[in-house]
Amino acid sequence: MIQKRIHKSILYNFLGFSLLFGQSYNYSVVMPVPDLSFHSSIFYGLDILEQMDFKPLYGKTIGVLTNQTAVNRNGVHLLDLLKKHPKVNVDIIFTPQYGLFADQNERFKIDGKEKYDPIYGARIVEIFGRNVKPPAWSVRELDLIIVDIQDTGVRFSTYLATITKLLEVASEWKIPVIILDRPNPLRGDRVDGPVVRPQFQSFEGYHIIPIRHGMTIGELSIMANEMGWIKDMKRANLTVIPMANWKRSYWLDKSEHPWIKPHPNLKTIRTNLSYVGFGLIEGTNLNDGRGTDRPYMRVGAPWLSGFHLAEKLIKLDLPGVEFRVVEYIPRKKQADKAIPLHVNKVCSGVDIKITDPNRFDPLATATAIMVLTKQLYPKEFRWDELNRIDMLFGHSQLRVFAAQGKPADYLPPLWLKDVLKFNEFRQRFLIYK
């Protein structure tokens, strides 16, 4: 596999940078894998490691950052595969936001106040919320950390931030990290949305990347490691086991791997696509479809007229999408950790139907809905009181634009410069064509 060299002296200034190319990374390694182009299947990093019979892990005490998405081509989970190898000792299981096996709580057992995996007796350590990075006691005995998580391809997923905090601790304790790469589910050749401005960085916008970044978790981790985006310019001993036969033009459903929800509300790959834009609705007082069977595919409120909104949206002639007026009542399900907005209230709104995922622009669609609703219902529509919209969007641009009353279709060109600059910048970190 051809690797690219990043020169140590490169400084990334998003609004103006120079490109310097070379032949390998300074702090990160992409493990060479056999040429499998003769085979029609796509092999994920886990599949490659499995073909190696997990030998790089033998004789080591391991920590694993994972969730329910870490399955091979046959739907078998990483932890179940590792259990077959007596030479592999899984001591700690780190879990990101939403936990591990979210729908299979029988996987856990409780001993006192601590949670364990009954297969290994491994202690489960959540690194989200109160503990945003692994505590020292959880890593001091580890020889190696493995990361296997299916990302959403959307910046406001917190998995990249969690991996970065893990790399931070790994660098402090000089523990090697191996990332088993998986596809960007929304193609790797599409970039969209503004880049986060430093004043709006958060755990949902941890790095200065666009909302739809078009990169894999392995590529993003290399970017963070090489650029010194880990806290205090730390660098980790990072190895990425790449995929074989994956191309940037592929959607996740191109592979034979099963769809496992990377987020409790992302039921399908089309929901994942709409989440690129409709995840921003969380920064408003609109219901975003959560509490119904169409999360991130529906928008409404008790004070809104779906007919009026749909009429305005249809006139915009947005590509790859149709709108249907709907009346519904959000309900809280037992498994829901958060109460849906306008729960148990009759809401009027619109459903979206993605007619062509290759043409559908989730950001243009969702921002148009918010801008139009602000214009149609200036007294009722509100942004989140803490201006969370700025954190999600990565910029105050959307909120300011909506206040100015300009046409909704004027907004997307405003982030075009960010898209072009980032697309150029990311080339040096891309593993796949």
Q: What is the count of DSSP helices, taking H or I runs of 4+ residues?
A: 11
The CATH topology of the largest domain is given as: Rossmann fold
Strand order across the biggest sheet?
1-9-8-7-2-3-6-5-4
Strand content: 5-15%
Q: Please bin the fraction of helical residues.
A: 10-25%
Distance between the termini: 11 Å
Q: Can you characterise this structure?
A:
The chain is an alpha/beta fold. The protein has 2 domains: 28-263, Uncharacterised protein PF07075, DUF1343 (Rossmann fold), CATH 3.40.50; 269-414, Aspartate Aminotransferase, domain 1, CATH 3.90.1150.140. Helix content is 24%, strand content 15%. The chain has helices spanning 45-51, 78-83, 136-139, 159-173, 217-227, 269-278, 306-315, 362-376, 388-393, 397-404, 416-425; strands at 28-30, 60-66, 88-95, 109-111, 114-117, 122-126, 144-148, 177-180, 238-241, 298-301, 321-328, 347-354. The strands form 2 sheets. The protein has a 9-stranded mixed sheet, sandwiched between helices. Strands 10-12-11 form a 3-stranded antiparallel sheet, with helices on one face. Strand 7 (144-148), helix 4 (159-173) and strand 8 form a beta-alpha-beta unit. The longest helix is centred in the middle third of the chain and has 15 residues, at 159-173. The protein is globular, with a radius of gyration of 22 Å.
Write the layout of secondary structure elements.
Elements: E1 28-30, H1 45-51, E2 60-66, H2 78-83, E3 88-95, E4 109-111, E5 114-117, E6 122-126, H3 136-139, E7 144-148, H4 159-173, E8 177-180, H5 217-227, E9 238-241, H6 269-278, E10 298-301, H7 306-315, E11 321-328, E12 347-354, H8 362-376, H9 388-393, H10 397-404, H11 416-425
Parallel strand pairs: 1-9, 2-3, 2-7, 3-6, 7-8, 8-9
Antiparallel strand pairs: 4-5, 5-6, 10-12, 11-12
Helix pairs in contact: 4-5, 6-8, 8-10
